[in-house]
Every structure is written in structure tokens, then in C-alpha cells.
Amino acid sequence: MSDVKLIKVTVDDVEVEVPLGVTALQAAELAGKEIPRFCYHERLSIAGNCRMCLVEVEKAPKPVASCHFPAADGMKIITDSPVVRNARRGVMEFLLLNHPLDCPICDQGGECDLQDQAMAYGQDNSRYREPKRSIKDKYFGPLIKPIMTRCIQCTRCVRFASEVAGVPEIGAVGRGEGMEITTYIEKAISSELSGNLIDICPVGALTSRPYAYVSRPWELAKTDSVDVLDATGTNIRVDSRGPDILRIIPRVHENVNEEWMADRGRFSFDALKKRRLDRPWIRENGKLRAATWPEAFGTIAERMKGIPGERIGAVAGGLADAESILVLKELMAGLGSANLDCREDGAALDASNRAFYLFNSSIAGIDQADAVLIIGSNPRVEAPVLNARIRKRAMVRVPVGVIGPDVDLTYPSQHLGSGPEALSGVLDSAFGDVLRNAKRPLILLGRGALARPDGAAVLAAAWGLAQSINAVTAEWNGFNLLHLQGGQVAALDLGFLPGQGNKDLGAMLGGGVDALWLLGADGFDPSLIAPGTFVVYQGHHGDRAAARADVILPGSTYLEKDGTYVNTEGRVQRGRRAVFPPGDAREDWRILRAASEALGVTLPYDDRFGLHARMQAVNPIFQRLDETPAPAPVSASPAGDAGAVGGAPFSPAFANYWQADAISRASEVMADCARAHAPTPAMAAE
Predict the structure, then answer these.
(1) Span 127-273: which CATH code?
(2) How many whole angstroms from its chain centre is CA 170?
(3) What class of enzyme is it (predicted)?
(4) Is the pLDDT score of 365 beyond 60?
(5) Can you give the pTM of this predicted structure?
(6) What angle, rounded to 10 degrees, do the helices at 608-618 and 322-334 form?
């Protein structure tokens, strides 16, 4: 604050100091006064069109809209006076002229800004006797249910779509009473952040289509948790009623997701009731049959008896929690095996130093970057909320360069090439001068650049580039790796990788093991598993790998258990159980602990407290919740020959954003989205 000039403003006879440049509304709120508003939103541009935030300013001829009126030194603001109250009542009367009496059936009822402010600032009668207007409902896609008769034209949705999501597909047509908010050609909104329109709409004009007419907010149990369907670590609130999750909404976390959330994490929870594994299964005579837990553990013990440790392997999936990853690793160690892998895509990750696999600048650090280079990644679909941060920087003319697929990132960018040859020659281009002159350059390396035969060389080349432009210093580490799912970093932190001389995923699939334990590992083709390999699949959905399993152990989704996750920037966060898993499904670490007894290698902890103590002993980073590591200079380099990069172009990490994991592949809502956003086939010329 030492560099910020302060001014003195009097708000209702209380003098406060506020930063120069704030508005009268912000000054009043800094003084502890509540100002009603509809169109104003802290993260959007100022529209000033609802006029609900009217206040008196000394010497002003009439009440002013405080949301865009700049505060000045010595200004006197009056937030509650007869003039202000009458003005707000008049504004509220105008807003309610055409608003239907839908409160008894509106999904916004009980958490509606219009309801609250009509009670607090409105009046109990209306002079309007003419018929209310009616507007035909629009089509915004399978996620948003628009009822535009309720719209008060605050234009929050228009500004969010164009400013935050970067998809200017919503706008206003008509004038005056004929004005309508629409998508013009009535197609699904092509944004992975469209669900946030529901949150920012202050009335019931934009509501959740899957949640329509399902529940009232006061009926819901609310559980704070974290989204793991991408690696951003979005803080969420899970609303449930009885055994059912009815909706998921974001929580505010300024350093992670601000207040936004990606659509896949928000809407795919209907999959918790679809294709679930709710009992153990055993394959006999080529067919799976339902079994009990003792039968399943007995079969595993019998089939794995006598198999040497070097012929046993384990793979951890991208949605696994840290607790189950650690227990599986120690179960394998008890069996004499170090054949472990958490890289389902085969990415060449170097876990010798945490700086080689983290988003070291931190997500909030994107706001300080003055040049961005994206290599082998499409953050728009891999981490939509993080991509919105990059867009925020790009909109203030921070240059962005892209090496990889030429896709629409929702912000201006310079496509430098499609493969490693552009990476090796970037310093010789005009964008190389941009990177060299930047004080805080940010290099974002995607899994699509590493999940290839020359992945280790690409990693080394990207690290060398970061060193050459002085992007890694004691004050700023601009080397960043973007992961795809919320369980991948914890697995690296816990060392769930093959040691020297042990087998990685490719070797295990190719016949290098006789027994393979899959912990929610659905990110590879199970047909690659060598015939004759005994496969134990532990997971929550009957996805790809479950069909290949000899024994299936039903686990829990991230919404059905307490779990620890580490996001792409290395921030340790805890998810909480919102509902119980179905049937005989259990928490994954408890399944593994029980299996250790059946296999004769009983693990030394039997409750969560002992397990967390063990996690913290293995890696002290689990002692610090909701913290990111401070940047520090790194003298070593990743293993890999930077000169051995190939010529093949970088490929996308996944082709279908809406069905990128076991949960979303089981979701009917995500299937609807995939169909709605499928490329339209080109029509033949006549």
C-alpha cells in the first residue's frame, strides 16, 4: 500500500481513507456500507445501467450511480437518506414492471438478489397496471436454462461472455422495452465456463438446466470440497439432499479460481448414479460374477500367491487421492515391488525436483507475467479457469505465443509453429526478443508436449529455454507444467514412479508383470495389457479398464470420500465427503488397507490420523494446507537431451473436453454437451 495514493472520503459522516481511483460504491463498501446493485460485478466492466446503486454526493444536483462515479478527495457520500430511499424505490418499481411473479416456481427463489433487494429497498405496491411483456425462451445449450421474461437487462451475462470467457456470443437486440438478451442464432454457448452465467445472473433469467425444478436451496446440505476433474484445484461447494448430489457451485478462492468454475466439474456429477461399481466382481470362466469382499480379497491373495515382487505392478489414475496413492505404494513395497507409474499418458515427467513438474509461477502469478509462451497445450480445454487468467493478461496487451495446435484460446496469440522445431528456433524469431525483454516471462508446458517418444527431450529443451531467457530466478520461476487432473501432482510428490531398473507403464503393459493393480487408471487403452496378466481394477465406474479386470473392487469418487489433492501449482487441498458411496463401495485407501491384510503384508495404520501422519513423514509438503511453494533457484536440469527432439507436431492432450475422464464419460449431461458441441459436418456443394 506504500505506493498507493490514499484520499479521504466521508461516507455517512464517517471519514475513511481509500485508494485513489476507486468508485463511490467501492469507497462506501470500504467504509462498511452496503450498496444495492444488479449490473455491477467486481470482476466485470462497469455498465451502470440498473441504477440501483444510487447515492447522494454533496453538491451533486441529483443522486448518482455510485458504481461508476469516481471518488475524490474530500467527497461526502450519503448512502441512506429520504432522497436515496425514494430513488431506489423508483428504480425497483421500474425493474419489476415486467418481471413475472415466478418466485414460487423459480429456481433462483431463496437465493435471488432481486428478491432480497425488493424486500430491503423496494415498496409494497406498484402503479403499473398494463399487461406485462413476455419473451420467447432462448436456447443456450444443454447446461443453461434461460427464461428471459425474468431478465432485467443487467448485461452481466453479456459482459462475462465477452470479457472473462472470451466467447462474445451473447448480446442484446432491440431497444427500450423490446430489448432482449440472446445468442443471436440460438446455438449452444461454446464456452467451457458457461455455467458461471448461472452464478452471476442476479435474477432467475439464467438457471441450471440439469437442476431445473429439483430443489430449494434451504433443503440442501452444503459441503466444501475441491474439484479434481482438472488440475486447477477449483474450490467448490457440493449441495446434496439425502444420498443425492443436486448441484456443485464454486467457492471464492482468489489465488486459485477467483470465483469461477469449469463446466465439466460443475455438471458431470449426474454420473455418480450411472455405470457405478457398487459391489466386488470376480471373473470366473471368462465371465464376471458378483462377489463379497472376503471372496474378492481371497481371490486376489490366491492369484498373487507366489508371484515375485518384480512381476507385480501398479498404476494410479489421475483422479486418485493422495491417501490411496500412498497406501497402494506401500502395499506394493510390502509385496516387494517398485513397478509403479502414475503417467497413464506416458508423459516424460522428471520427479527429481519439484520445480520440474509444477506450475511454479502459481496460478495467481499469471497476473504478474509480462510475456507468455504456451508449448504443447490448449489450456482452454485442459484448465478453463486457468486459461481465463491468461486471457485477463492478454487483454492488457501481454503478448502470448503458442507452439502446438493452432486453436482458438479465446484471446489474441501468435502461432509460432506446431512442433519442437519451433521450440528450438523461438529465440531467433521476433517473439524471442519479447521473451528476452520480459521481466517475468511465463513458459507453460502441457502434457501434450511430453506424452510422446521425445517427451524427455522436449522437457529439457523447454527448461533450457527458460534458463536462457532468465525465467528462473530467486524472485520468479517462470517454468510451468500444466497437468490434466487433480491427482497427478500428489502421485509425483509421493514418488509413485518406477525407480532405477524398475518397470514403467509401457513395460508393465507389454508383459513385464504377471499381476497388475489399477487404481482408477482409465487413461490408457486396456487392450494393451498382455494376455494372461492378472488385473485388479479398483475404481468407481465401469469404464475402460474394468472390462479387462479379473477382480473389480468398487471405490469412491472424489465427492464420496475425504481426500487430499495437490493442484498443478503444488497447493495441497482437502476434499470432503458430500455423500456416501453406493452399495458396497468403500473409500479407496480402506480397500487397500484391507487388501494388505489378505495379502499378508498388513500396513501399520488403520485410521485417517495415522495415514496422514505417514503422508507427512513421506513428504513434508502435506503438512501445509493451501500453500504454494516459494520460488527458488534450481541448479540442476531435467534428465533428457534437448538436442534429441523429434519433428512430429504436438498433439492435443485430449480431443473431447466434455468426456475426458471416467466420471464425465458416464455423465448423460456431458454426453449432451459433446453432441451439442460436435463439429458440424461440412455440406457438399451442389
Answers:
(1) 3.30.70.20
(2) 23
(3) translocase
(4) yes
(5) 0.93
(6) 80
